Every structure is written in structure tokens, then in C-alpha cells.
Amino acid sequence: MSRRVLVAAAGVAGAVLLVRGTALEPRVVTSPSMEPTLGVGTVVLVDKLSVRWDELRVDDLVVFTSPQDGDDAVKRVVAVGGQTVALRDAVLHVDGEPVDEPQVDLSRIDGTWFGPVTVPQGSVFVLGDSRSGSIDSRVYGAVPVDAVRGRVVLTLPS
Fold first, then answer.
1. 102 with 80: CB under 8 angstroms?
2. Active-site annotation holder among 31, 33, 130, 134
3. pLDDT tens digit string along 101-124?
4. CA-to-CA distance for 61 and 47, rounded, in angstroms?
């Protein structure tokens, strides 16, 4: 190969490593807790730059360090700092109002009750879409925003 091709290849490889390390990172989902939205083996692209507390929104899918085991986890933000969260007979309520969650199969978790709890400022309350099999903020509490590593921005075809 010519020196020019090698320099170009090294530049492309460097750019890929820089983007992966600082901005975007592919991740493989390893838990069924987000089914049916994300199944085991689904590859997602994670934006690692938009994790400031004032940029995270309800319904974002986030990757964070789980307080349960220290591994990375993917869950849905259902409430942010200052909001009150409860499950009443499986229906999510935020600030006393029921939330429509078409991705959650309520028939599988009928009879589930939790809360109410108020999410501390600088934290998010996360739940898996497969509520019956998800270890989430109902177990370990709200997740500090500084534990959030990124936001899922794209699901890649498998």
C-alpha cells in the first residue's frame, strides 16, 4: 500500500475511535427487561454527550451504571427530579396522573403497586418495559444523572 492510503486508513480509524470513545457507542442489549422495545441481542447506538441532567427527558432510553451490580443497564426514564412516581394496579402515575405506556403489557403485571416516591433533583427514575422481570428504580431507587452514561438514539437492524 502507498503511504497515502495508510495515512488515510489511520485517520479513519482514529476518527472512529474518537467518535466511539467520546460521542457515539454501539451497545448490545443483554437483558430482557426492555422487551418488547429492545430484545436481548439488539444493538443500540448510544449518544454519550447528551447526559446532562437538564437534557434527559421522560421516555428517553438511557444506559447507566446499575447500583444493583455495577454493570451497564438500559431502562426507560419515567420521571425526572422533583416528580412523584407511583404504580397503581400496574398503571404508572407521574405527579398523580396516569401515563399511557403502549409498550408495557399491563396484563402481565396486574396487581403491581409501588410508591409514591419523589425523585430527587439531579436524578431520574427508570423502569424496564417488561415490568415483571425488570430490576429497576423500584429496587435501587432513583439513578443519579452522573451515573447515566448515555441516551439510546438509534436501534440498529440485526
1. no
2. 33
3. 999 988 888 788 999 999 999 999
4. 11
Domain ranges for the chain: 24-156
C-beta of residue 89 within 8 angstroms of C-beta of residue 98: no
* CATH 3.20.20.140 for domain 24-156: no
CA distance 29 to 137: 18
**What nine digits make up the cell of 103?**
409498550
From residue 87, alpha-carbon distances to 56, 111, 126, 131, 144 in Å are 22, 9, 13, 11, 21
Rounded CA separation 145/108 (Å): 30
> Taking a C-beta distance cutoff of 8 angstroms, is the pair 141, 126 a contact?
no
pTM, 2 dp: 0.81
132 counts as catalytic: no
Catalytic residue among 75, 123, 130, 134: 75
CA nearest to 147, candidates 45, 71, 86, 76? 71
Question: Is residue 48 flagged as an active site residue?
Answer: no
